[in-house]
Predict the 3D structure of the following.
Amino acid sequence: MAATTTTSHIILDDQGRAWVDDTNVKVIEIALDHLAYGWNADAIHENHPHLSLAQVYAALAWYYDHQTELDAEIERQEERVRELRAVAAPSALARRLLRRTR
């Protein structure tokens, strides 16, 4: 008989993305808060009070259990943003600010 692993508070969608149960929050979003801001579970919970502390800890545990894949996805997303920025024209606000600084 094969062993099955159940992770409380984490569900996978049809594309295999991990979500915090009963929310519209992806695990990767919580991981990004942890990585970008250095927030621990308590700080994440404080900034996202709709998440229980158990949900936050489950998301962080999922991140560390799947760190290689999630870090690769974060890098792909960052690369996509860099590509979009490179081809995007400056916004009207950016153009006005540039004119003011000249």
Remarks:
- Confidence is low (pLDDT under 50) at residues 1-5.
- The longest helix spans residues 67-87.
- The radius of gyration is 18 Å.
